[in-house]
Amino acid sequence: MGRGIAIIGAGPAGLAALKAAQEEGLEAVAFEARTECGGLWSPDDGLVWRSLKTNLSRYTCGFSDHPHDPDSGLFPSAARMAAYLHGYARAHDLTGRIRHGHRVVAVTRAGAGWRLIADAGGRMVEYLADGVIVASGVFAQAALPPGVTVAADGHISHAASYRGPEGFAGRRVVVVGGAFSGADIAAEISGCAADTVMLIRRPAWYVPRLVPVPQAMMNHTNPAQPPPRLPPPRLPMDLVVNARAEAARVRGLSPAVIAAERHAWLRDIVGDQGLLHPLLQVPDDGRLAPMVISDAVPDAIRSGRLRVMTAAQFDARRMVLHDGRHDLPVDDVIYATGYAPRLEMLPADIRAAVGYDPDDRLQPVLLAQTVFPDGISGVAFVGMYRGPYFGVMELQARWAAGVLSGRLPAPDRPAMERAMAVERAIRDQRPRPQFPHADYPDMCDALAARLDVMPDLEQTTALGRFLWQGPVLPAHYRLRGAHARPAGARAVIAEVAALFGHDLSPQPVDPSSSAQQRSL
Predict the structure, then answer these.
(1) What is the C-alpha separation between 479 and 445, in angstroms, rounded?
(2) Which residue in 29, 44, 132, 440 has the fewest CB atoms around it within 10 Å?
(3) In this structure, what DSSP letter does residue 470 have?
(4) Are 420 and 366 contacting, i.e. CB atoms less than 8 angstroms apart?
(5) What are phi and psi of 308, to 5 degrees?
């Protein structure tokens, strides 16, 4: 069997795993049920609709050593993302290592290794491997509420099958869910439907893609002078909120203080949402309200095209709100109720080891730093993570491949116990947060520390200062260490730095001043 690695899935996580295995000198093959790579970004049988654009910038929705084409815009379209992933596979010679149309249906032990059984269009294919990387991700299957099934005539569907608004012209449509996909789908349909209702359980902040940049992130030529009294520039949300300096600042604050600060900041950006709709009034109650990046929803509500209501019950083709005051006729119901992983192909002992619960939308599996199962060797997971995922899953893939190749050590027992305690605490947290690992800078840096690819954060250089003050980018983790690509990484970082007014040419500063900043 040599040193072969089998990878389940050829979406973004699977491609990252295939590339990482190749870097480690491993023979690897990826099994993909679809006819092309790209996973959820596949235009024909993925989970995207034609008008979709990323809600995070191209600098975050991309791999560390494969930048997007500049003409993709700040927020690439679904078609651009699919093309990007195909280009990534070609550029790194991955296409010949993908077995398309192969759905893995069973994984069993085979001596010291593993046997995979894949359904290749009705023909069963067996593959033996030393190790397995599960890269099928958290978007493997549509999640519907208990008792709900999709209808053959399309009257009841899931957002996974939505491609555009054309079939809903003149109809009465209810979209269940007001998070990322539900919000944008409801807003788009409201442009042609006779009536569009978006059902929500609780208010969320609806924030535009571009938000004001805090003055602390901008570069000022003379730090002794107050910042200029100019309107702050607007940049993508992911470039504004994911800075190491800000993450370090809030780490010692109480959850109530963090919630109050974020409430005030978001209210400054979007205003009083209660004036937009009473059900969107976000209470300042010490809890972190969900945040949804959507440019379209506020305008759709303000224009009257989109109505917002609370959770409802359905009876055939009528909708009855819990307060009993409405009994509305409905033509179509779209459930934008999220997605779940699919791990039924794994043996029972692995599913038990990871505490697999497909109904747990926050934390469906328990893995050490979202990669390794407790007590199971030769298996790793990539992409079991919800958040700004390209940078995280690439680091996950590099760590998994490094351990499976033998170059890096697996987590020892104390480290595994600490990591699993963190994951169990996340699952048990009440009230449940919007995302399981909300500290994106720390998440990335913790994985990078395992790989010994952390960038130098010494602030005696312009680069070091921006690495600390600016956003965390996947390119940070190609500056040094194994498989570094420093020239390309610096070019991407410099491009982002210029958006904040930072010049990354060498400009030494007083070391004592730098040390003081690092201590804050």
Answers:
(1) 13
(2) 44
(3) S
(4) yes
(5) -115, 130
Question: Per residue in 261-314, pLDDT tens?
Answer: 999 999 999 999 999 999 999 999 988 999 999 999 999 999 999 999 987 676
What Cα–Cα distance (Å) separates residue 262 from each residue in 256, 275, 485? 10, 19, 36
Q: Are 294 and 183 in contact (CB under 8 A)?
A: yes
Instruction: Name residue 306's amino acid.
Output: L
For residues 472 and 466, give the distance between their C-alpha atoms in angstroms, rounded to a whole number: 10
SS3 label, residue 259: helix
The answer to whether the peptide bond before residue 255 is cis (omega within 30 degrees of 0) is no
Nearest-angstrom CA–CA distance, 477 and 218: 23
Tell me the sheet residues that pair with 114.
109, 129
* Residue 149 backbone phi and psi in degrees, to 5: -130, 150
Question: 103, 135, 106, 105: which is closest to 120 by C-alpha?
Answer: 103
Q: Residue 439's closest CA among 355, 368, 518, 369?
A: 369
Strand 327-329's sheet: what is its strand order? Answer: 312-315, 318-321, 327-329
Beta bridge partners of 108: 115
- Per DSSP, what are the bridge partners of residue 308? 198
User: Which residues have a Cβ under 8 Å from the Cβ of 519 and sit 6 or more positions away?
Assistant: none
- According to DSSP, residue 66 is labeled B
* Tokens encoding 267: 């209210």
319 and 211 in contact (C-beta within 8 Å)?
no
CA angle 291, 296, 297 (to 5 degrees): 60
Three-state SS at 244: helix
Per-residue pLDDT of 215-224, as tens digits, reads 889 875 555 5
Contact 297, 206 (CB under 8 A): yes
Check whether 487 has a pLDDT greater than 80.
Answer: yes
Could you read off the pLDDT of 411-440 as tens digits, one per residue?
999 999 999 999 999 999 998 999 999 899
Contact 478, 486 (CB under 8 A): yes
**Euclidean distance between CA atoms 283 and 45, whole angstroms:** 39
Strand-strand pairing, 332-335 and 327-329: unpaired
Residues paired with residue 154 on neighbouring β-strands, in sequence order: none
504's tokens: 């990354």
